[in-house]
Amino acid sequence: MSALTLAARDSATMTRRQLKRLIRYPSMTVQLVITPVIILLLFVYVFGGTLGNGLTHGGGGGGGRHAYINYVVPGILLMAVATAATGTAVMAATDMTEGIIARFRTMRISRASVLTGHVIGAVIQQLLGIAVVIAVAVAIGFRPNATPLEWAAAAGLLALFALAVTWLAVALGIKSPTPESASNAPMPLVFLPFLGSGFVPTDSMPTLLRWFAQYQPFTPIMETLRGLLLGTHIGNNAAIATAWCITIGAASYLWAKHTYNKA
């Protein structure tokens, strides 16, 4: 059996391990889905009327709550991925601190498969969470006008973003000394949609904050999703979003691999 075949087989085994863990402890998955749904409902029904009237774009006509729900959904989708990263970091830290990794190292398995299992299992969890958020959004008035090809492109971008964020979460989890500290490490990711174009247009922000919002990685991803799903202008945001995802994913993979091999 070749090294590549062995790695693929072991990665599939570790992915099943992660999926069984998610099934065994569904409360974590439910919590990670409920958080972005609650934020979606809060902003749409509490702030949506006022914030929607101030929008100059966002894929919905007439202002008000209808315009705002179309505007805010891309930011909520990225928040759902970032929220799930917390659980991924905790599980990675738990494996590193409870001795299971030491046991795996005594077995004839691919070293990379342990990390790959965490990543694939988490990405599957995140994509399922995204589907739930979209379903709730559609139920309360989200009306995308995307073609099947645009939906496929949006799904691909979300999957690429989820992969990048998950590798970052795994790296943070491995680096954390305890699962408790790992639960706090990815928290800044949850707030980046607020500090970008996730909830209000960046041109409404003060100068310094507007500069940060325009150049941080989440903003081009959200603008690309809006363009794909709602027909707003994308410009060069798609290329920037893809570059950010690849850069974050590659750097996080190398960091996670280096930290794991040193542990």
From TrEMBL:
The chain crosses the membrane at residues 25-48, 68-93, 114-140, 152-173, 185-202, 238-256. InterPro entries: ABC2_TM, ABC2_TM_bact-type, ABC_2_transport, Nod_factor_ABC_transporter. It comes from the Bacteria. PROSITE patterns: ABC_TM2. It is a multi-pass membrane protein. Residues 27-263 form the ABC transmembrane type-2 domain. It is found in: Cell membrane; Membrane. Keywords: Antibiotic resistance, Cell membrane, Membrane, Transmembrane, Transmembrane helix, Transport. Its main location: membrane. Pfam families: ABC2_membrane. The keyword 4Fe-4S does not apply. Belongs to the ABC-2 integral membrane protein family. This is Transport permease protein. It comes from Actinomadura violacea.
